[in-house]
Amino acid sequence: MMNFRNAGRISGVVATGAIAALLVTGCSRGGDAGGDETNAPSPGITDTTLSLGISSPLSGPTAGPGSCSVAGLNTYLEAKNADGGFEFGDGNTREVTLTYLDDVYDPAKAVSNFRQLVDDGIFAYVGALGTPTNAAILPIAQEEEVPQVLLITGATMFSSNQEENPYTFGLLPTYYSEGEAFGELLVGRDEAITVATLAQNDDYGDDYLAGFEAAIEGSDVEIVASATYEPSDPTLDSQVTELAASGADALLSAVSVTPLQVGVLTKAQSLGWTPEIFLPSNTSTPATVVVPGNGAAYPAVYSTSLTKVPVSPAFAEDEDVIAYNEAFAQYGASIAANYTPHCAWSYAEGAILEQAFLGMTEPTRENFLTALHSIEDFQAPLLLDGITVNTTDPTLPAIQGLTLVQFNGTGYGPVQ
Amino acid sequence: MAYFIQLVIEGLATGSIYGALALAIVLVNRATGLINFAQGGMAVLSTFVAYALFNAGAPLPLAILGAVVFAFVLGAAIERVIVRPFERGDPDTAVVVTIGLFVLVGGIAAFFFGYEPRQFPSFFGLETLNLGGVFVSLRSLGTIVVLAVVVVLLQLLFRGTKLGLAMRAVADNPQSASLSGLPVSRLLMIGWGLASVLGVVAGVLVAPQLFVSPGMLDFVLVYALAAAILGGLDSPLGAVVAAWFIGVIENLAGAYIEFIGNDLKIAVPFLVMIVILIVRPQGLFGRKVVVRV
Amino acid sequence: MNTLSKLSANLWVRVAFGVVVAAVLMVAPLISSKFVNYQLGLIAVFAVAILGLNIVMGYAGQVSLGQSAFLGLGAYIAAYFVTADLPIPDELRLPVSLLLCAIIPAAVGLVVALAAARLRGLALAMVTIALPIIGIPLAKRFREFTGGSQGTTVSWLRAPDWTEGILENDQWRYYVVVVIAVLMFVLARNLVRGRMGRAFRIVKENEAVAVAMGISPYRYKVLAFTIASMFGGVAGFMYLGVVQYTSPETLSFHTSINMVAAMVIGGSASILGTVLGAIYFVLVPNLANEINPSLTALFSGAILLAVLFLAPGGVVSLPRRISQVARAVARRRGTATPQNPSDPAPASVTTRPESTEKNKGKRQGQ
Lengths: 416, 293, 366
Description:
The complex is a heterotrimer. Chain B is an all-alpha fold. In chain B, 73% of the residues lie in helices and 3% in strands. Chain B has one domain (2-217). Chain C folds into two domains: 32-291, ABC transporter involved in vitamin B12 uptake, BtuC (Orthogonal Bundle); 317-361, no CATH class. Helices cover 70% and strands 1% of the residues of chain C. In chain C, helix 5 runs antiparallel to helix 11 (217-243) and helix 13 runs antiparallel to helix 14 (296-310). Residues 339-366 of chain C have low confidence and may be disordered. Chains B and C meet through helix 4, helix 9 and helix 12 of B and helix 6, helix 12 and helix 14 of C.
């Protein structure tokens, strides 16, 4: 049939045309990873500019935290740019720009975005959110010799092996250390306590459990019931019912999905089970989790905290918070409409980058990494007092400190 | 024993979530012979309308009513404008159109409301009843009851009213229906409008627990499809019974069979469903399809 | 009769066209950046996966919403066999993996099909939906084999020593993957043009007729499904080669649905449509990202619907659509043109204001 054959030929033209367009746009088999001589500048940096790239989930269920991972950083960068720019250790003052892409939490897409950003000539890849996405990028970052730093994930794998992966490390305290902190709190009471655990069925949950179990080893604290869940589960009611049957004194609820965490809080008390509860830092916000879940019904609700909460009246007088809120309204609100802790974390990340820039004496990626890894005792804005940035340990992320806090009816305060 | 009953009750409650959406899918299929992958997305968009109205100060029943009206108009409009051109063509293409709609409607919801999960008030309040050691929330009970009522109403609609009969005629044989003087176009739109209303009922029932977000019903849709197909695609009662069945089996398998645990429990209803379908391809309640040669 | 038809009929022109395409494919990676090679590699991967889908869905008419499960299975098999401590000599690892990536998913597909092929339409769809749904928790459960939810990273398909200085890793990967893709396409083309393809078509059209002709619908459905699974598995091998990472998310139901959409958009029951569909699958998310990274869902959905409205038979049918529209316009202007008998046109034919270089496709009737 003539029709089909001609249609075929013409579509062939279309196909070749599409591929040709793709090639033309990417038609630059340039040099690979930066210059060999230490003085040749890396891609993405000139005397007056430096470009950063990030790929985070900007749509889909993780879009809230993902957008915040971009918004906070963008706020810090743009505010400083408007103020004159960043000072570098080599004497130049540069404008630092951020290019961001959406990867819908899909590793293949994240790799594609990373390659595109590198192709476009970014200097460094910073602050991306997600564990599988960053895991997929990790080997490529090493091979391309592009810094993949200050990642917004608490997975241990990114920071624990910096000898082998010198171009990568994380920003946040690991989930392991959060679980460990909870365990230590219970052990410190010196009594027999039964614990039920509810954990996400992946490294997020596994890391929490591993840290918790390590802390309680050899003590009188015992895990008597465990359950897992998938992030796609519509409700955790049956898991909570299972755990409630154990009547444990405490519940470690390593749940990273806000509606599910609220469901845990409401379901447990509706069954007449009111243990002490430990919430992870990213699902512990009073307004969206604890209050809707009626946290007051429990004898104690604990969590960990890293930063001051800019949307909470408790911190309204703090000058860092005031500066953040002002700048965010202008540079971040269009990217992230709602606050999640990731906004504050990525804002602090901007300040850490600034410190690294101050220590940079040469416009190369290697020099940037050296400067980035030389920060000690830096009190980044929005970090709680006492939590400082220390990047000198090759097995730890940039921020290691955690403060255990307890819900006091309206917000969080020191543990009673 | 109380534990067992608790699990069953919870399974029925979760199953009701699947069943509510399954009803909408069955209705669309009965009216236009299509599987609408965007059913969940349309329901969520309408639920967002209820959320917006409620937050603007309207009392909850009024907000829900407003959402119902919106849902009907949305469903009818989508059928007329977007789906109609593809209804008589290749069924695969029609399904992909609903997939495109699914993505687009989700994107529209996200554009107006963002991705953060929003709280939605429960129509039935927050209390939990203690019935002899078994704890049932009023919301779960309310959902199950509403679902049962809707199923009865739907059965009445299709078996006992002229409208229902007309809709079935149009779905069965549009040419004959048109020749008989039935307003085919209007009936198709009504079918989708009604399905969309069912969808928003589902959305409003489950929103208090799932929180309103563009992806709220994404995974529920898969269960709802399973329930609709297992029940036999033309039976509202079948869809709901199948949904309850799926919810209960999943819970029991997860709790009592060690090997399965929480992560593989989702496999159980699907495996059971496959076995049932092999033995009885028309589903539990469906009519046997006879193709005349 | 226009010049293009005459040209296409000419064998030499077709050969020349083929040579040009081959030349472009061969030279492309040498001049393009790693990012572009990555994209082209991904297009090859999904072209093979969607090709399998097209065979079972487009040609044989059986709904399959679980192709991603076979893609993921293939990727995991490849990851395991390339890194595991098995007594296989290094040079043979790759071919052995490729073979296993074809055989094991095909076997799984066969078993599933034997059970499910008796089901009709949506019941079969449901069984295929069950594959990724069950596959993901299974992948997480067997972590010694799969790396668990963290996934597995490999450093694989590195440019062999004899290409030192000539080819880099990403270029080598591109070539391997494209060669496999071309082989699979040739295989598919022979399948659908031969007796098997004809049998598939008859089974899709009317099973009763098939039985009357002595063709067992059940057997051919099982065959189609098995072939599709094999293609999915091979695509999984290629996927691991290009992305160098796999995780349970590779099996996601979402990917299956997007592949079906891409198949229809490219053009189902069409070999060339498959390539177009793969291009759509890989490039449209990038396009949406370019327009607005925060609104990718909105634009992806809008683009999908727009394409379907303009070309319901898929992009591959676009030239035919344009000629239909051109004829409709001509008819309205009063120019006498014989009507084209059977047009599967949708109820509303939209008039296009311009179609400059595509006017080549205008036909003045048959």
